[in-house]
Structure formats: structure tokens, C-alpha cells
Amino acid sequence: MTGKVTQLWATKTKDDEWWSSFVTAPLGIVANIWAVDIPAITPNRVTAASFAIALVATLFILIGGFGWFIAAAILIHLSHILDCMDGQMARYREVSSPVGSYFDRLTDQVQVTLWFGAVGYAAYAQSLSVAPVFLALIGITFYGLRGYVKYIALEIETARDPEYPAKMAHLKRREPMAGLGFGLAANVKWFLKEQPKALTFDEGVFIFMLSVALIFNQLTPMLWVFAASQVFWGTFKAWQRGMNIDANHKLSIQK
After folding, report:
1. Beta-strand (E) ranges in 114-235?
2. Taking the chain, what is the end-to-end CA distance rounded to the nearest angstrom?
3. So what's the pLDDT on residue 120?
4. Distance CA 227, CA 231 (A)
5. Read out DSSP for the chain?
6. Residue 165 belongs to what domain range?
7. Do 27 and 83 meet the contact criterion of CB atoms below 8 Å apart?
8. How many CA atoms lie within 13 A of 240 on its CB side?
9. Which regions of the chain are under pLDDT 70?
């Protein structure tokens, strides 16, 4: 069993998001101890189940009310655990595929839009103010911008240098820094180094934010945080990637 857990831990994304890193991804590994040995459970089916549960969570948010919000918070976490499981399972079985990765990322983007759109509506229904709807729209737009500028930059850089994606993939490779066999000190150090990721306000942080907001029924304050954080990071990422393209272009001219 220990050897299997070690193998599964090695499938964990090395640069996981904040909440994923030490909550949902480890829970995914625990679930995979049982799931990876069942042939009928495939990574693509896990992805589909994750998205289906995300849709149900969206419906519960739209219905509104304390009990439905609690149920939605639980389902959002369950959806994200499954979202971690599919990649772990694919890497463990060595069946990772481009199409599986594509649909995994696509559903991630869609469910973030659905969740925050639903929260914007639920907050509007409570307050009869359009401000939460506007905040949700702004947050969703600038969150999408973060991914959009990444792929624009990738397209431009690949047109200039066809080997650019391979070079970037090589730079992103990271060796494991914690887990089984690394000792208590290494794991504590890893845990502390993970905490600043909370300030990046990515999907892993959204899972935490949404759950807390739903449990305590603080939807509008959470939407203010969501919108402000995404405006900052969307604008910063757009500027940063533009500067990188400019620097790389100047470097290629000098060559």
C-alpha cells in the first residue's frame, strides 16, 4: 500500500494551486487508492463526473437558501477533488492524452464562469442590487483574460520560434519537494512556501472563497474580492506577457 501511495503522490501536479496543493489534491490521491484499480473508472469519465457535479452545485446556488448553499459548497469541493483525480489517474496509468487535458481545462474554465455567475444572481436575488451581477461579470471577464493573454503570447512566440512551447515545458518541470519520504521538516517547509499562492487568486483559491462565502452567506463581499483580484491579476498578466514578447523580440533582432 505504501508503494502505491508513493506512486500516486508522484502523479500530483508539482506546482498545484493553493487549496488544491494541500486539500483537494491529497484527497484525490486518497480516493485514487481505490479508484485507479477499477477499469470502468477512466480519467475522462472522472472529468465528466466532476463537471456534472459542478453543474448541480450551480443549480443549488441558483435555488438559494442556507441548506442549498451548504450543499453547493460540499459539491464544489467534491467536483474539485474529482478534477484533481482525473489527471492523477491518467499519469498513474500512463494514459495521459491531449484530448483529455483539453476537456479538463475547458470544463475548469466553464465551471468557474457558472459558479460565479450563479453567485452573482443569488446575491442579486437577496439584495435586489445589480452590483453583485456587475462584480461577477468583471471578475469572470478578467479571469478569462489571464488565460487568453497566455495563449495569445504562446501563438506569437511559436510563430517566431517553433521550439518555444518545448522550451517553456522544459522550464516548468519541477522536482517534488515534499510528500512521503521527505521527512517532517521538508513537508513543513513546503507547506509554508505554498501559502503565498493564496494571493494569486486562481481556481484553487476560488474553491475556498466560494465555499466560505456560501457557508456564511457572504456572497457580495466575496464578489468584491473576486472582481478586484481578477482586475489586478488580469491586467498584470496582460502587461507582463506583452513586456516578455517585446524583450524576446529585441533579443531575436540582436542575434
Report:
1. none
2. 54
3. 98
4. 6
5. -HHHHHHHHHTS-TT--HHIIIIIHHHHHHHHHHHTT-TT--HHHHHHHHHHHHHHHHHHHHH-SHHHHHHHHHHHHHHHHHHHHHHHHHHHHT---HHHHHHHHHHHHHHHHHHHHHHHHHHHHHH--SHHHHHHHHHHHHHHHHHHHHHHHHHHHHHH-TTHHHHHHHHH-----SSTTSHHHHHHHHHHHHGGGGGG--HHHHHHHHHHHHHTT-HHHHHHHHHHHHHHHHHHHHHHHHHHHHHHHHHHHH-
6. 2-254
7. no
8. 10
9. 1-2, 169-177, 180, 250-255
**pLDDT tens digits, 162-220:** 887 777 766 666 666 677 677 888 888 888 989 999 999 999 999 999 999 999 999 99
The pLDDT assigned to 190 comes to 85
**How far is Cα 224 from Cα 125, in angstroms, rounded to an integer?**
17
Structural domains counted in the chain: 1
Cell 521538508 sits at which residue?
186
Give the CATH number, domain containing residue 223. 1.20.120.1760
In angstroms, the CA 21 to CA 31 distance is: 15
- The pTM assigned to this predicted structure is 0.91
